[in-house]
Amino acid sequence: xxxxxxxxxxxxxxxxxxxxxxxxxxxxxxxxxxxxxxxxxxxxxxxxxxxxxxxxxxxxxxxxxxxxxxxxxxxxxxxxxxxxxxxxxxxxxxxxxxxxxxxxxxxxxxxxxxxxxxxxxxxxxxxxxxxxxxxxxxxxxxxxxxxxxxxxx
Length: 153
What we know:
- By secondary structure, this protein is mostly helical.
- Helix content is 76%, strand content 0%.
- The chain has one domain (3-136).
- It has helices at 3-39, 43-72, 74-79, 82-108, 123-139.
- 22% of the residues are buried.
C-alpha cells in the first residue's frame, strides 16, 4: 500500500472511529462526570472522572498522531513526542485489559474501570499508525557514515 493510500485510510479511520468518540466524550461523558462529581464527591466518582480525563488525553494524543501522519506523512510520525505514543499505548493496553478481564463484572455496576472502555475503538487507528511508523523506519535505507578528515595546519 502506498503512503498516500495509507494516509487516506488513516483519515477515514479518524473520521469514522475517532471523531464520533471524541464528540461523545467531550459533549456527553465528561460533562456528566463533572455533574456527578459535584453532586456526590466520593472517591469512586473522582476515579471515574480522572480515568475519563486520561482517556480524553489519550484520544487527543492519537489525534495529534493522525493529523501529523495525514498532513505530513510517515516522517512526521517519528517527530511526534514519545510521551504521546506512551499515553496512547497505555490507554490502549488499559482498554484491552478492562475489556477482557473486568468488563463483565463492571457492566453491572458503574466503576472507574468502565471509563477505560473508551479506548477500545481507537486501537485500530493506533495500530495502523504504529505499523506505519515501524514500517517506514524499516524501509528507510541506512545512510552511510561520512568520515570527517581532520587536517592539521
